[in-house]
Amino acid sequence: MENLYLLIDLDRCYGCKVCQTACKMEHGLPVGVQSCIEPLRHERRDGSGKLQCDFVPTVCLHCSEAECMKACPAGAITRDDNGFVQISGEECIGCGSCEAACPYGAVTVAEMAESVKAVKCDLCVERRGRGMEPACVQHCLGQAITLCTGAELESRTQGRNKWSVGHTVYMSSKMTKLYE
Amino acid sequence: MNTRRREFAVKLLGTECDPDYRRDILDSILNGTHKLAPLQRKTPCKAAPKEGEEAVPTVCQSCHTTCECIAYRDKETHRVLRVEGDPDSPQTRGIICSKGLASPDLCYNPKRILTPLKRVGKRGEGKFEPISWEEALDTTAENLKKYRSEYGPQGVAILEGTKRGWSRVFSRFAYAFGTPNHGAAGWAQCFLPRTTECNITFGPGALYSETQDYPNAQCILVWGCNPPTSWPVRANDIMETRQRGAALIVVDPYLSEIAAKADIWLQIRPDTDMALALGMLHIIIKEKLYDEKFINEWTVGFDELCRSIEEYTPEWTAEKTGVDKELLLKATRVYAKCPASSLCRSMALDQVHDSLQVCRATSILISITGHVGKPGCNVVGSSRGEISQNTFDFIRDYQIPEEVQKLRCGYDKFPFLTRRPCTIPSAHMPTFWQQVVSGEPYPIPCAMIFGSNAIVSYTNSNVVEKALSGLEFLAVADMYITPTAKYADIIFPVSTWLERENILSNFQTDNTHTLFQQPVTHTPGTKNDIEILYLLAKRLGFEDRFWETPEALYDYLLSPTGKTYRECVKERRLYAPLEYEVYRKKGFKTPSGKIELYSKLMEEKGCDPLPRYTPSFQSIQDTPELAAEYPLIMTTGRHENAFRISENRLNPYLKELVPKPYLEINADTAAKLGISDGQKVLVESPAGKAFAYARCTYGILPEVVMGISGWWYEFNINKTVPWGQYSQGIGSVSCRGYLCRVSPAEE
Fold it and tell me: What is the DSSP letter of B323?
């Protein structure tokens, strides 16, 4: 299977939080458990002292060097055929090692219906199996989030500033230096 | 809060921004070379249920946008499992907002009322016992009759909330019953200033200038409106067009979600919208940026307008609004020079001290620049073949005899609210509530409130609460025991939108489609308001003018199309193409047949025929004595992405999104007041006090704070909104710019 990428265009994100709710509903996450995706507002002064305000949908970066995978004692975290990092619910023992290891706050251990499990973005693998886009991609008001192939990634990011450590790619034209 | 996520977001964004980002867009509009990139739309796809589920297409009614959606239900039990956007919808192209996504809780929240209730404790105490529908309806009808015969129809108030599928049936009920005191928390505060103004400026049937042709717009001017939190389809359209190269200009005192994406953000002081509009008109006229041919052909009063804007120079405007003069000039030139500019205005303009007039000023702006009816502009007059209850023939307001109409609260003062051309001739609500308290000039002891959490939704809530506590009989229809329903004698449990039929056909929904909602599930014990009104009408002897079932009503409304409601549900939607420049065929239905820049009608009713500047009722400069004690300017009325007005406050998924009632405050001001980010604060004005939690920002001026309305009980910011002065002609309360003070509070 081909490599896929979660591409996030920061210039298009309104911070409306629709992705956050769509993800929670799709994954049946209980109230109090963090959504796998969460847009955060950030105000700051740019180099010239001008006020800037942007929004970042924070989500699993599907790292090439995935700390969560290394930390998992049960071997429950693997890479799928598209390149995304996946947690197997059956093998997860809910120990929280992955949560502690992830530098980006993308994984959380939550009390789900049957048992305590690690939860993070799975790119809506079940939903895509039904022929639909991931919940955040479909519902995003700014169409800031897309799922794309390697070729599409190349054409969509052309001329844009981008940053990635794996299969989640952030891009922007406004921000000239992502991840300082 | 997950601190690692926060740290990541901060690092990712960094501090380096391209100073020339999107500058070429403004430049190319100014030099006349601007083009939009081609429109590329996502491929539609079909919604796919999981095993054991059924996908039911319907329309979300969590707000006025009304997005086509898919409700997934259990095949056997019909329990609603999820609500999602419909990826096959031409209206939404798959989106829906958090309110829609979290909708199943509306049906299944354990606090939902599933049987009629009767008060057993003291009024307002919140103690009720279940009764039968029969008893609830009989008791209410008897009381309505009793108070009408003892006090006259004016002694019984019939009040509603935001627009639903039954709203004008409710107006029809009020006028059939005979009361002149029909009203709502919105209306003069939301919607009626804009619709009434359009009736005045463009003529009846112009269908509001709110029909924007976003896909073809090269410049979008968003004024007092934040679509990402309150208008999802519009937000989607605007972002799509922005990314294709349209310039985005935003007028907002706060760095809102949409303002954060603006190419030019005009950060005005609250309630100085009129100064800005007049300043823009001045620049357009002085720099001859207007469309002379269009003005000559299609407007009246341009010469008078030119004379009236003389004093509103860019320097004057900059001083009044706080907007940088160069930015003002640039924004005005871009908007006016661009051949395809759409103006998107909303509720903020209904809630300033000169609401009707400032709506007029923005319509004049559209008109003299020729941005009327053309591709990419405000397509005034285009019809989507409305299946509408919003007609005088439907509401039958003429049933109220003239001498009774004159008893309508506020009749003498507010001609554009209390009678036609106002689209719903209705009572002036601040006058009304004060009269309920005082009993002068006549008593109003009885009320029926459907779909409105009045205590929270009206301004100056302490007076509203006092009025409700003094009523002799109150019937309320709602899904929950809201702070308002607590004061009721009888509560009718109503169905949710997931259990209803409805026809959605208006500018807020879509420019070209009429949509059809169908029930996804059924909750025993509850009824649609349409059925309740029929059953009450039956007891009052005028059921011949009402409909026993919602379907019967919608069949009636659809009869001109030759289709039934069921047929339309199957087809999902009716389509009518966007029609440009309709006035070339039909003219404008004003007395002059043209756009009335100068309005004789306004003049006849004692209002300014042309908009002019008047200072806010309260401001630091104009009311210095009040400002000495209350030094901050409050603007409130904004909606957040999780809620519309006071709704959904019991939904745990939405509460999680916005867990606290925030008060946006400038970080430096907060520091001076000894307030830290997230701290509980007390907001006070001479009208009352409310609590909130400070959210420090640099996206608001140091002298301004922004409260969020809709929170219940001690967090209800509407308690601080003063009454006493109202907008000319229509009587809006200014909740976007009054004085207050803020101090740290005990947790």
Answer: -
Residues of A in contact with B17 (CB under 8 A): 46-47, 50, 52, 174-176
| Contacts for B616 with CB less than 8 Å, ≥ 6 apart | B270, B271, B272, B352, B353, B622, B734, B737, B738
Is A75 within a domain?
yes
State how far the Cα of A172 lies from the Cα of A161, in Å rounded to an integer: 5
pLDDT digits (tens, 9 = 90+) for A38-60: 999 999 999 999 999 999 999 99
Tell me which chain A residues have a C-beta less than 8 angstroms from the C-beta of B62.
none
- Taking the C-alpha atoms of residue B97 and residue B60, their distance in angstroms, rounded to an integer, is 10
Task: Output the pLDDT for position B381.
Answer: 84
Q: Using alpha carbons, select from A154, A162, A78 the residue that is nearest to residue A122.
A: A78
* DSSP code of residue B191: B
Closest by alpha carbon to A112, among A22, A25, A28, A19?
A28
Q: Which residues of A touch B258 (CB under 8 A)?
A: 14
Q: Indicate which of B12, B20, B60 best probes the interface with A, i.e. most A CBs within 10 Å of its own CB.
A: B12
B707 touches chain A (CB under 8 A): no
Measured between beta carbons, the chain A residues lying within 8 angstroms of B7 are: 105
Which residues are CB-neighbours of A157 under 8 A, at least 6 positions away? A7, A169, A171
ipTM confidence: 0.98
Structural domains for chain B: 117-191+403-505+513-575 (3.40.50.740), 202-383+585-604 (3.40.228.10), 624-744 (2.40.40.20)
Number of structural domains (chain A) is: 1
Mean pLDDT of B599-608: 97
Beta bridge partners, B684, equal B689, B741
CATH number of the domain enclosing A63 = 3.30.70.20
Domain assignment present for A179: no
Most B-contacting residue of A7, A8, A14 (CB-CB within 10 A), to test interface: A14
pLDDT in tens, B224-254: 999 999 999 999 999 999 999 999 999 999 9
Query: Does a structural domain hold residue A180?
Result: no
Domain limits for position A109:
4-172
* Count of pairs with CB atoms under 8 A, one residue in A, one in B: 190
Ranges assigned E (strand) in B215-298: 219-223, 247-251, 264-266
Q: CA-to-CA distance for B427 and B447, rounded, in angstroms?
A: 13
Partner residues linked to B19 by β-bridges: none
Dihedral pair phi/psi, residue A164, rounded to 5°:
-160, 150
Q: Is residue B243 within a helix (H) or strand (E), and if so which, with residue range?
A: helix B232-243
Instruction: Tell me the pairing of strands A51-58 and B80-85.
Output: unpaired
One-letter amino acid at B237 equals: D
Placement of tokens 């640099």 in the chain: B698
B500-528 CB burial, b ≥16 within 10 A, e <16? bbbbbbbbbbbbbbbbbbbbbbebeebbb
Is the CB of residue B445 less than 8 Å from the CB of residue B471? yes
Strands B595-596 and B632-638: unpaired
> What is the rounded distance in angstroms from the CA atom of residue A93 to the CA atom of residue A75?
10
* pLDDT tens profile B453-467: 999 999 999 999 999
**Chain B CB contacts of A10 below 8 Å:** 12-13
Token readout for B658 is 């916005």
User: Encoding tokens for residue B255?
Assistant: 């760095």
Report how far residue B708's alpha carbon sits from residue B636's, in angstroms, rounded to the nearest whole number.
6
Nearest CA to B83 among B91, B67, B93, B42? Answer: B67
Task: Answer for the pair B377, B371: CB distance below 8 angstroms, yes or no.
Answer: yes
Query: Are B323 and B276 within 8 A, CB to CB?
Result: yes
Helix axes B192-201, B355-368, angle to 10 degrees: 50
Q: How far apart are CA B581 and CA A118, in angstroms?
A: 58
Pick from B13, B46, B657: CB nearest A42: B13
Q: In the structure, what pLDDT confidence band is assigned to residue B413 with cuts at 50, 70 and 90?
A: very high
